[in-house]
Model the fold of this input.
Amino acid sequence: MSEHPHDKLLTLTIDGQSITVPHGTTIFDAARLNNIPIPTLCHQQNQTPVAVCRVCVVDCGERAYQAACIRECEPDMKVQTASPGVLAARKTIYELMLADHPVPCRRQQQSGDCELEGQAAQAGLGVAAGLETPRFPKRSVPVLLPDESSLSIAVDYAACILCDRCVRGCAEIRHNFVIARQGKGYHAAIAFDDNQPMGNSSCVSCGECMVSCPTGALTNRRVLGQNLQAIYPDAEIPSPEELLAMPVFHGVSGTFLELNQGAVIKRQIRAGEIIVREGENGSTAFYVLQGTVDIYINAQRAHVASTDQKRGLVARITSKLRTKKEHARDEDAKDRTFIPIDASVDLPYDNPVAALGAGELFGEMTCMNFYPRSATVRAQTDCVVLEMLRNVLDVLQKNKNFRAELDRNYRQRALRNHLHSVPVFAGLGEDFVSELQERVELIRFAPDQVITEEGAVADAFYLVRIGFVKVSQKHGDGEELVLAYLPRGGYFGEMGLLTAGTENGGKRNATCTALDHVEVVKISAEDFQQMLERHPEVRRKLEGVARQRAAENLLRQQRSDRKQPLDQYLAQGLVDAQSLLVLDLEKCTRCDQCVRACADAHDGVTRLLRDGLRFDHFLVATSCRQCRDPRCMVGCPVGSIRRRNSLEVVIEDWCVGCGLCATNCPYGNINVQEIVSEAGGHAATVRKATSCDLCHDLPEPSCVYACPHDAAHRVQPEVFFADLLRSTGEAGNAN
Amino acid sequence: MRIDATHRPWLIASLWILGIALAAYVPYALVAQHVSGGTAVGLIFGSIGFGFMLFAAALGIRKRYPIWRIGRAQTWMRGHLWLGSLAFPIILLHAGFHFGGWLTSLLMLLLILVTASGLVGAYLQHTLPTRLMREVAFETIYDQVDHIRGRLVVEAEERVQGVAEHLAPGLGAGATVVLTYIGAIPEINTELEKFTETFEKQIRPWLENKDRKSILRHREQSVQLFEELHRMLPEGAWKTVDALEEICEEKRQLDRQVVLHRMLHAWLLCHIPLSVALIVLGFVHAIGSLRY
Done:
């Protein structure tokens, strides 16, 4: 460290050029000020130099080469930045880094500006073209798998060169302190919080790390790579400045908004215009800026009763002549007074209409979890709304200003309805709910994040506001037994609180995990106990539910030898499927007629493989499952893979055959085929992605139609496997 | 096709047809002086029986064009099973329970063989899929079996190589330590040699299908062999031995799949040619009888 004051000057020579700079100036800065380029990877002007990459080494005439970014200038120092020795050392460093680096990395593929690859190419390494045989072997120690848990930033550990620019960007520039280093030697890597997946960490997706990263280790994730304006040509794409001027975007990273222009649009909606329809599939959420919208359920409510399939021919014929009776609602459904929807309000059962005004958000679940729209929304007055994709919504939900406004709206408008919509809380007094409004917490959880752990002290009661929660218990052999799935309106945590103060009481007896993007209302143990004291009828009902759940859980444990189906159902991702091609292995004679029919129906190229995982006595064939969360759609550069308003995923003719959808499909159900196209008057071989289209122009898929053994079925899994799953997945839960 | 409760309508319809046929045949047989296929009633029975046979045979054509929307293939299959079965008693009624000349005797013999092979096939297809499902957890596409067996050999070789490197890291690729397990415990060399010998002489030939009498064909003996390997080798190698055992189990299951698959389809080698012969000769018989 220089002992001279910074206002004193010194003179040194860099590459033969005499330069005068203040004491304390680094060689890198001195060179930069005089337009002498010194390459570097780990150093940025706005960050503290750490000299970890050693790319900026220069020859100062000393025993070893010095890192220019951190070495301060000294009087009469003679520096060479590009001597043969320095260039050779630098080239060796590039080679070593490239030995561990995927070429081209994601950044190079996206925007061609990976600094490592660019500088290496300038240094004469033909990495981009793969011309040079690497001197150093690839690492033998496995690298961490890519982390795609964040909706806005993709993490590729293989491309990370441990330059720490992201760490300093997160800490020094943004003061978020989320990113740090973990591990040693070959196992060193960046980590988020206490080594959480990025999506589960406290990262606010400000984008600073992504902007700081010199390689493809941290890159922007554009949702579908699409521009919403392409769907709504009349909509306006607000500039980042305009968005930042809105209170709800205050604090969001301008860099992020810059990188994701088109992922949020401003739409002017005229009074009476339908914005979304119930049952439709979608991928966006809406934030009302001005005006009022009506949110309602259009479908007529009617109870569907089962008919006796065993009735005889005469009864079936005469039934056509009889008048149909109105089927009454199920007795157990009568106490449901509200219908939960994907908005801050629940709809009254008898008159399912509500209004949302400025500052309200709707469509969160559709946007985050790709669930179908739960209600129809129509503009009551002329409105201005922001429509956004999930990466923008995710960033907004991590923004404290936006969260604060959402929380306030929820507390004021929805919490009362939400609590009253749960039958056991229907009797809560208004005064108590008003008190509770200010004390509850709204907490978000990412998919697979644990909300409460079995055995932990019960300190709160939870009410599910968005998403699905899995309730499970561990058994002696370490196996997990799933007790229940709780949707919106479900609650958990009461059993631990009700047993507080008793022997072995006060502990969680199950683990609750977020299945998808979940938001819960957390009521503290004190408030919960107060509620029980003031409302004995609520205590009585809760104790009844707890007793019932305990008995059900015991029954499930006794049936633990039959728990396999539900576990497998989840493990195989069948819960996410809307349509499955299953082959009954007790009927299938392996004649391959299904495969032949598929090939015949699709220009000789089959879209199904009679292979895959087994579920009970069924083979789940390798054929598109029409997932609720169609991850295949994410990233299609030309938007050629999409979902119809029904359910089938279709790949349009303009597919460019990049294969990204095939890579994204977790079940290997999309293939890229080479086909001969005669479009344009000449035959050419083109690559196209193919997947099962359910033979959508035919009344029944060809594979099913052609199966001579009644073994192939296209089914809705939750209906087809209902009986099988009922033994372990009945409603009810524990904890 | 599995014969289950869904076949009840076909069973009832078949019984009705048979009942009506018998109801027509009994008075005819009692009244007529000469019961034969050449009488009006006999010709009707013959036409119906031959019609059933033609319908049953049409399944083969239907299966060649699986996407033709001419009725679901399973409906055709049910028709094939039930009407094909009915053809036999109807033809018996047509013939008045006589075998006649050499052609009709041959036809009757063919019909018996076709019906019998069909019943055997129906039984096999009713039972074997369940066995295949239960006994072959590693089931794969039949045409891929040879390829996968080849991959198993490669995987086993890699595993065995891995054991040598794991126990003697100074010898393997990428070795970074000087003091090796081998150096510390010299006698492991002998165990490694035995292990390699077991692999080369017993496991590999069986995996490559060169030793068809190997003890590895039997699960119990295979378990014994691998238990011996466990006892012989240090704990560091157990994971690999387990993996090898699983490879052998997969190979065993694939072999079982091949056997069951062949059983499931081999009867067709008898059923189809006999059926073709029956139809062709049936035409010859029909034309010859009607003309002469």
Notes: Chain B has two domains: 5-136+275-291, 142-260.
